[in-house]
């Protein structure tokens, strides 16, 4: 068997059968099968693309089956999804896509299922992706949400939430572009941590400055971990949207002292490292708090080069150990659905449910109340989510403003993958008077 397809299939099975995460399962599978370079890129697209576009492929496979999709043995169904991705979304010759998938089924399931897989995939290969979508998706005119659900492989409730957010921000006509952007793998973006590395060093390694964050550069290809600056923690991998919201919190004017900063939910540490580097240059000190010890360990590793400019603490931010009104700047990167980072998290759209919103909104509200209580009068709070969903962004902030008459909204910003080239980061900058 081809090692790249073996690795991809192993990742898909781990994600669907064991609730693994694609970005964690992939490196292990690549190492296990001895894959690197172009073969690693091929395996990555096989696995992540199949998982990301699962909803579209399931609708197409259902039209090619003589039984309900739920009646297909899960290992066989995952192989069929992998074959469909090669046939419909990759430049893989049909005979190779079908033949290698049939071999996977024969080797990992049983011979009897191989003939079944062969017959189904030959039906799938009879049409291209556009023709299949036109056949299996609801009519775009009468049911635009249903059409988008199938055409762009997003659960219906996610499409509805994203459409509502676009409408709120005056971007009603951009749903198709947003959903399409969610299905394009994100570029690798580096952050040159200020005071630790110059942008010129990253440029010499082939990175290209983005022009928005002064510390952001995209890496056209290769393993970012091979760069000395990244390997030694002077630079890191960080979406430009994450950089922009952290910079907005760091650069907002404050009255009086500007010496104590807080990152309330710091794991895994990307924003803490950027804030800590800036704090170090300004003779300020950052407290980076994280609820879970294993995530706090990631924060410690990420900020290790910043010395005593950053203190990492472990604790529940809803019942903080620090004194009220004791910080000049507070970043609350709140736990959220992560629906703004679907480009990076292939499985996330299939794991989140509408019920998650209510639970997360309650937590977000509690954390924002603590953030407001933690900042002194004249200081600022940055409320950030990697989600554009109104229930996690505008509604949380509006409710907090109604509860706190000594807080005002100074700035809000919603970034979008299709127009900004970043994750869909939301920022509300609040000032306590």
Describe this entry's structure for a reader.
- The chain has 433 residues and is an alpha/beta fold.
- The protein folds into three domains: 3-129, NusB-like (N-utilizing Substance Protein B Homolog, Chain A), CATH 1.10.940; 187-238, no CATH class; 239-432, Rossmann fold.
- Helix content is 51%, strand content 14%.
- It has helices at residues 3-18, 22-32, 37-52, 54-64, 74-89, 94-108, 111-124, 129-136, 144-151, 156-168, 175-182, 199-204, 228-231, 240-251, 270-281, 293-302, 348-351, 354-374, 394-403, 417-420; strands at 188-192, 208-209, 216-219, 235-237, 260-263, 285-290, 310-314, 327-333, 375-385, 407-414, 426-432.
- The strands form two sheets. The chain has a seven-stranded mixed sheet, sandwiched between helices. Strands 2-3-1-4 form a four-stranded antiparallel sheet.
- A hairpin with a 6-residue loop joins β2 (208-209) and β3 (216-219).
- α5 runs parallel beside α7 and α18 crosses α19.
- The longest helix is centred in the C-terminal third of the chain and has 21 residues, at 354-374.
- It is globular and about 75 Å long.
- It starts with a helix and ends with a strand.
- The relative contact order is 0.09.
- The mean pLDDT is 97.
């Amino acid at each position: 068997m081809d090692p790249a397809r073996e690795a991809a299939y192993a990742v898909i099975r781990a994600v669907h059968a064991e609730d693994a995460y694609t970005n964690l399962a992939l490196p292990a599978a690549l190492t296990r099968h001895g894959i690197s370079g172009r073969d690693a890129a091929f395996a990555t697209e096989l696995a992540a693309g199949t998982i990301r576009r699962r909803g579209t492929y399931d609708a197409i496979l259902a039209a090619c089956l003589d039984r309900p999709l739920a009646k297909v043995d899960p290992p066989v169904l995952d192989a069929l999804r992998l074959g469909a991705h090669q046939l419909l979304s990759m430049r893989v010759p049909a005979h190779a896509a079908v033949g290698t998938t049939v071999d996977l089924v024969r080797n990992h399931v049983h011979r009897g299922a191989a003939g079944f897989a062969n017959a189904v995939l030959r039906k799938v290969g009879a049409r291209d992706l556009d023709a299949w979508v036109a056949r299996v998706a609801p009519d775009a005119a009468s049911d635009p949400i249903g059409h988008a659900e199938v055409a762009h492989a997003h659960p219906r409730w996610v499409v509805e939430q994203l459409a509502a957010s676009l409408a709120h921000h005056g971007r009603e006509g951009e749903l198709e572009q947003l959903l399409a952007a969610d299905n394009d793998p994100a570029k690798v973006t580096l952050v040159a941590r200020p005071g630790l590395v110059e942008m010129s060093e990253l440029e010499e390694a082939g990175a290209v400055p983005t022009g928005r964050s002064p510390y952001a550069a995209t890496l056209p290809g290769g393993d970012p971990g091979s760069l000395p600056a990244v390997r030694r923690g002077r630079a890191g991998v960080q979406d430009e949207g994450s950089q922009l919201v952290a910079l907005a919190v760091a650069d907002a004017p404050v009255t009086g002292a500007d010496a104590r900063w807080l990152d309330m939910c710091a794991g895994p540490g990307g924003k803490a490292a950027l804030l800590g580097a800036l704090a170090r240059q300004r003779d300020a000190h950052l407290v980076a708090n994280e609820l879970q010890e294993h995530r706090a360990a990631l924060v410690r590793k990420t900020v290790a080069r910043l010395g005593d400019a950053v203190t990492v603490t472990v604790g529940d931010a809803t019942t903080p150990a620090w004194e009220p009104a004791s910080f000049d700047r507070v970043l609350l990167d709140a736990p959220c659905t992560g629906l703004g980072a679907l480009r990076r998290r292939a499985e996330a759209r299939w794991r989140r449910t509408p019920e998650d919103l209510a639970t997360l909104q309650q937590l977000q509200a509690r954390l924002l109340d603590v953030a407001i209580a933690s900042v002194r009068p004249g200081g600022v709070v940055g409320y950030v989510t990697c989600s554009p969903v109104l229930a996690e962004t505008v509604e949380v902030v509006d409710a907090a403003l109604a509860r706190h008459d000594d807080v005002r909204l100074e700035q809000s910003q919603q970034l979008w993958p299709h127009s900004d080239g970043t994750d869909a980061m939301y920022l509300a900058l609040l000032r306590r008077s």
